[in-house]
Design brief:
By secondary structure, the chain is of the alpha+beta class.
Length: 535
């Protein structure tokens, strides 16, 4: 019943703002046209189509507002008048009562705002879909902002998530694309993300880690969290001073180098994803400011770290290799990587898949660099996925969304941004560094404690293996065949191999004390013993 009420409200809001006029109904099936027909009874609101969409998304709540925030970063996909209007969803959502905000802060911090803060501004500094922010200053004069979550938002989100689950299950059951799209898994991931935003202590921890990753970086500044005044319900952080990234005229007046600004944004993204494996996954323009103190080398300022993402080592590797292969127009390798990663079935025809990828990508690369959009390419590739049963990877959804945000923002700042040329050298260097001898040795050192923990188990395993090899096979009521003369030698050799490997593993315990030179000597010694045993 709650889902039915929610669907009814969505239908009502769609009629109230005449959202049916935003789509071409002639392309819809007859059943959909019949369902939308009563919306015409609501009449015209007199608002522009952008205003109607923005108001509808605001009325529908945080999940829909976040969808609008993503759309607002894609002027290449969304009409200019709509894009200009829904930009207001980034940091100008309708505020809630200041009295309620103050009450929530005082309850969370167990005191009055007059006692906790030297100054506390009851007028909101910024409002968003999940939380609201006010200016304040601590008793030592430190300028801060105070953030608290909207009241009763948990119920709204839970209701919308329940509705999304219902829709996802219907898609999974009745749509031919259901198994490939994995709609239920995507909703599960989004549920974790959206409820994670309600825990401000988690956001504070994310902010602290991101600040640590970019400590003293010329690319990105992250505000400091004041932990004595922060918990899961309230977050107090350093008040930053910068130009909102969408205020183009202010940036121009400050003399900012837009080419540098756009390229630094791409570099920050790839550094977070591939070097730190911890990336800001909600980088819409409302969360990004610019420090223009050095306009030729502008630095970004990032806030609102509630949604962060990370990848497995395998996903990192395949993502980097795929992007490089696309940069090089090596579509065969793109197809092979998709198969090896399990993103498409193992029996997929590489030749056919390569042809499909080439047909999508090649026409795009023939355009001027300023017109090449990774977003358009992803949409085009997705349209070819059905014939190859390509599955949506829920673990990569956040990354895909963030990449779309970054590209959309970069093109707003510098339309000639060549995303490929900016990213390609970085990815090549990352792959080279990841598999360098130094990186492999570092990984080996990290894994050494686990290897040493398992070391005592090796001798019993070796003796058990030798004992099993020397036991005669069971008769099974059949005449036992005489052993070949070489059988004892083979048994001993296999046991010697296992023993030799054990000796080699034992030698690794010297790594932390005596360094790489002796490690090499230990490996040579173990190999020599192994060769003598195998003779």
């Amino acid at each position: 019943m709650s889902q039915l009420r929610r669907l009814t409200k969505i239908y009502y809001i769609a009629g109230k703002y005449r959202l049916d006029t935003l789509i071409d109904k002639t392309r819809l099936p007859l059943s959909a046209r019949i369902a939308l027909a009563p919306l015409a009874l609501f009449g015209n609101t007199g608002q522009s189509r952008g205003e109607r969409l923005r108001c509808a998304l605001e009325d529908l709540g945080p999940i829909f507002i976040k969808f609008g925030q993503l759309l607002s970063t894609r002027p290449d996909l969304v009409a200019a008048d709509i894009c200009a209007e829904i930009k207001h969803l980034q940091d100008n959502v309708s505020p809630f009562s200041s009295e309620v905000f103050t009450s929530r802060v005082e309850t969370a911090l167990d005191g009055t705002v007059d006692d906790i803060f030297a100054e506390f501004d009851k007028t909101p500094l910024a409002t968003a879909s999940i939380a609201q922010v006010h200016k304040a200053s601590l008793n030592d004069g430190t300028q801060v902002v105070v953030k608290a979550v909207r009241p009763n938002i948990e119920k709204t989100i839970a209701r919308d998530i329940s509705l999304l689950y219902t829709v996802a299950k219907i898609v999974a059951k009745y749509s031919i694309d259901g198994p490939r799209l994995k709609p239920v898994e995507i909703v599960e991931d989004y549920e974790k993300v959206i409820f994670g935003e309600l825990n401000l202590q988690s956001e504070g921890a994310n902010t602290s880690l991101l600040k640590h990753n970019f400590e003293n970086s010329p690319l990105l500044y992250v505000p400091e969290i004041h932990w004595p005044y922060s918990n899961k319900n309230v977050l107090v952080m350093e008040r930053i001073s910068g130009i909102p990234v969408t205020h183009i005229e202010e940036l121009k007046a400050a003399g900012v180098n837009f080419k540098q600004l756009a390229e630094r944004g791409v570099e920050i993204f790839f550094t977070q994803v591939f070097e730190h494996n911890f990336f800001h996954a909600d980088m819409h323009p409302g969360n990004i400011f610019v420090d223009a103190e050095n306009p030729e080398k502008p630095r970004y300022i990032a806030i609102d770290c509630a949604i962060m993402g990370s990848l497995t080592r395998e996903d990192q590797f395949y993502m980097a290799r795929n992007l490089l292969a696309i940069f090089k127009r090596d579509y065969t390798q793109v197809a092979e990587l998709h198969v090896r990663s399990g993103w498409v079935p193992k029996d997929t025809s590489i030749a056919e898949f390569t042809t499909a990828i080439r047909s999508v990508c090649e026409p795009i690369f023939e355009r001027p660099l300023g017109e090449i959009s990774l977003g358009h390419m992803l949409v085009s590739l997705f349209s070819t996925a059905r014939q190859f049963n390509m599955e949506v990877q829920p673990s990569l959804v956040l990354l895909q969304k963030t990449l779309l945000n970054i590209e959309g923002l970069g093109r707003q700042l510098y339309p000639e941004l060549d995303l490929w040329a900016t990213a390609q050298p970085y990815l090549k260097k990352w792959l080279k560094d990841r598999y360098s001898p130094k990186a492999i040795l570092k990984q080996f050192k990290n894994d050494l404690p686990d290897l040493l923990e398992k070391l005592p188990l090796i001798p019993p395993m070796v003796f058990q293996a030798l004992e099993n090899l020397q036991q005669p096979p069971e008769n099974n009521n059949q005449t036992q065949q005489p052993k070949a003369p070489s059988a004892p030698k083979k048994s001993f050799s296999l046991g010697a191999v296992i023993a030799g490997l054990g000796l080699g593993l034992l030698a690794t315990q010297w790594i932390t004390a005596i360094g790489p030179t002796v490690i090499i000597g230990s490996v040579i010694t173990a190999s020599g013993i192994l060769l003598m045993l195998l003779r």
